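Recall the central idea of this unit: under ordinary conditions, the amino acid sequence of a chain determines the structure it adopts. In this exercise we apply that idea directly, starting from the sequence alone.
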Amino acid sequence: MSSEDFSPIDFLNDDQEQQPIKTKEDNVAEKFNQLVSLNLGDKVESKNGLSYISWANAWKAFKDVYPMANYKVIKNPQTGLPYFVDPAVGIMVFTEVEADGLSYTMWLPVMDSSNKAMKLEAYQYQIWNKTSRQYESKTVEAATMFDINKAIMRCLVKTLSMHGLALPLYAGEDLPESIDETKDFQQTSTLQKNKSRKQRKASGDRYDGIRQAINSTNSTQELNALYRQHENEVKNNPQILALFTARKEQLLNAA
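Accordingly, the structure predicted from this sequence is:
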């Protein structure tokens, strides 16, 4: 009997077991779970209702798990600048993090202290004041390079979360900002419409609708058609008849 008749496992002790060989996917999953499970409670800060970790603490914790990790700030190929601008909606920054061959890219808008998107020029928006029960104007100042720099480093932390670091902090980020504000807006719109109706009624402007219809006519033919449509009402109402007469004179003079 030769040694070829024995498999390698025959030479193992009874209390020894073969260890499964880890694949690259296994290592990635293991490190992802390690990063998600890191206790970063003492490094989490809060501002304006949002929780975050400073980029320095985040990068240190990440490099402890991925010592060879690298990151880069993605630049606009047309301008060479580290941000992208859409005049209508604001400024966006992008970062990429590569660790052990796994790469993720994330993005973040440049925001002010109220988490409102900043643009290259200042602009105003309306906010509902629950105390005064009316809308107030707020201003978002124009973005500076300081604001853009902060957004880039915050974006870096967000990209690290795609690898698992502090990922739970971003849970719920895509929820609506405020359901109450939506209800307030709907209720306010209804109140404003009702108020406008009451104001028109109180001012005695009962003929606002017919006046608009008369003024929108562009020819005596259109005016005559509108007159026939309201003929019964016009005959018994000198005020409406006067509106038709005045518009007719305007059209004839303009001809």
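Confidence is low (pLDDT under 50) at residues 175-185.
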